[in-house]
Amino acid sequence: MVKQNKLIKEFYELKVSQLMDKRVWDLPLIEEKEDIHHVLSILGARNHIWVVKDMDRKELVGVITEHDVLSILAPKHFPSYVFGMPDIRSIQHGTANTAGDVMANKIIMCDPDEKIIDALMRMVKFKLRRLPVVKDKIIVGELTLHQLIRKYYSATQYHPILEDEEG
Q1: Residue 126: which residues within 8 A CB-CB, separation 6 or more?
Q2: CB–CB of 96/37 below 8 Å?
Q3: Helix axis angle, 66-73 relative to 36-43, nearest 10°?
Q4: What's the CA gap between 42 and 50, in Å, rounded?
Q5: Cα→Cα distances 59→30, 56, 133, Å
Q6: Cα separation, 9 vs 72, whole angstroms
Q7: What is the pTM of this model?
Q8: Burial 34-63, CB ≥16 within 10 A → b, else e
Q9: Parallel, antiparallel, or unpaired for β 48-52 and 130-135?
Q10: Which of 33, 35, 104, 124 has its CA 20 to 30 A from that of 61?
């Protein structure tokens, strides 16, 4: 138990940059001006998309999840007394045409230099499974719960502290 406590403390102290996925080229990125059909094509394979101003600079401006798309795909039924369009995004009514129309622009993120424990606490607080890793507004990677589980599990299997104390 003492060995595991020491290991978890060491794990918490690691920097996000040590565990994050740095393959920005492989992240689901899309420009905010992209057509909604391009958004749907990406979400057919991924469960989220990071929205950037432009692909060259990669300044993060939003995120789109499967849940966001569910709300725009579902048919909207408005009572006959509603005049004009209420503030509801919908493919059916033509109010969701681009990634920018659908994205959430209040993004919970982390910095590559912060500790894993801080990123984990933010994930717990906001009930998130992934965080974009952002430096000076630019997405530089992604930190997912899946990655953290894998890294922690592999550390428990091959950690030198455990070998030293058992040997």
Answers
A1: 108
A2: no
A3: 130
A4: 11
A5: 11, 9, 11
A6: 43
A7: 0.80
A8: bebeebeebbeeeebbbbbbeeeebebbbb
A9: unpaired
A10: 124
Tokens 């910095």 belong to residue: 111
| Separation in Å, CA 153 to CA 3, 19, 82, 156 | 14, 13, 55, 5
CATH code of the domain containing 119: 3.10.580.10
| Cα distance between residue 83 and residue 34, in whole Å | 29
Q: What is the CB neighbour count within 10 angstroms for residue 102?
A: 26
- Residue numbers of the domain that contains 148: 2-166
pLDDT by residue, tens only, the chain of 167 residues: 556 677 888 899 999 999 999 999 999 999 999 999 999 999 988 999 999 999 999 999 999 998 888 777 766 665 556 555 554 666 666 677 899 988 999 999 999 999 999 999 999 999 999 999 999 999 999 999 999 998 888 877 765 544 433 33
- CA 118, 124, 126, 130 torsion: positive or negative? positive
